[in-house]
Amino acid sequence: MIWDNNFAISVFPLLLEGLGVTVQITLLGTLLAAVLGLVFAVLRRLAIPVLSPVVSFLVVFVRGTPLLVQAYCAFFVLPAYGVSFDALTTGVVVIGINYSAYMAEVYRSGIQGVPKGQWEAATALSLPGARTWGRIILPQAIRTVVPMLGNYLIQMFKDSAVLSAITVVELMATAQAIGSSNFRYLEPLTMAALLFLAVSYPASRLVNRLERRYAPQH
Amino acid sequence: MRPSTEPQPLSVGTALAPEAIIRFESVSKNWGSNHVLKSLNFEVSPGEKVSIIGPSGSGKTTILRILMTLETPTEGLVNVDGDVLWNVTAGQKVRETRQLRETRRKIGMVFQQFNLFPHMTAMENIIEAPMHVLGMNKAEARERAADLLNLVGLGKHMNHTPPQMSGGQQQRVAIARALAMRPKVLLFDEPTSALDPELIGEVLNVIRNLAHTTDMTMLMVTHEMRFAEEISDRVVMFDNGAAVESGPPAQIFKDPQQERTRTFLRAVLQH
Questions:
Q1: Cβ–Cβ of B128/A125 closer than 8 Å?
Q2: CB-CB: which of B101, B111, B119 is closest to A126?
Q3: Number of folded domains in chain B?
């Protein structure tokens, strides 16, 4: 099979559209994962009876099962129980929850990294718990884990291709569809790979810079 | 025994001995089989400046940490300013009560490692608790913080963050931060131990000023013997989880009654 430039150019706009969906999934999914992960990490640390163990189990469960299985369950099994959303929404929620489990661990390491003296100073000043978390602990914890969260964003960007399996028309699904309807896979799949790279490579350079910037100051 | 727990007005200018502002009654603290405090009885009068000396591991820091509620006693009663801070029977599970939280507000602490909030300016460090614990408005909190920064000689550093300041400056901000909560009791946990030698003086000057100009009760754990001698009303020697000897600084340093105190002072004053 020889590369066909005209065909490649003709399908490029379609692939760009697919890339747009992939970026959209990644941004929304990361937002969901970052917020949920933070909530999970704090809940686990607070050691609330019942709630904290449930969260811990959820994190273990999500980390211990493949993303693809989770996506299938959410898209093909849950509707039988009356929970049904369109593919894109389901995809964003599934990948967001999946990554929240990993990000919860990242936040946990960040929270653990805050010196004990910071908690003690907050106690000595009688700061309420919410204020201690919101103003003292989390700003310091999150600062140190920003680069790690960035790495997960890049990973999610690539992992979102899995969602093509539940009919989300993102970059990978678009390339596949073009391939199967034209019986030419070389151009769409090659270009899809290059488009993934075109985004993830600069993004990982950016994360490297963040890593240097947020390096511990001591 | 004086009659306890009766609320009494702080006696000003009376001949009666004032009710203790800090009282430890049979307080023990165990870490596993290690008995850090052994049924300690200990009192501090209102306005008194007390220095606690003794070898490391003698339990002296634990006293401050129990008062600041950073540690839970294994057993015993701790009263602060007429209110129960801790009342623990052995084996009992201790929870943080409202009573404890309210009593804690009367106490402030200056830490060995300063423990300033590194992501906040000196000003923000100081106004945080007055605004969000005492409910002070921002303008008033800032005005008072500025006064306190001037008091510790750092009026020009209000917008600096801890990483931009020397250890001595950080510790002075930490003192200002504790003072902003208007504590009745201020605890100092080896406030100069983490400092380079040339920065110790500026911090001691601030503490000395406080000792001489306020009627705040001050309880200090320190290794600065000469400083303790100079500013304290009373010095307490701790060893092995118990107060071995207590008295005016002149007596403790010049004429200690206990052999343990003598050997300790001989060892530390040689350097």
A1: yes
A2: B101
A3: 2
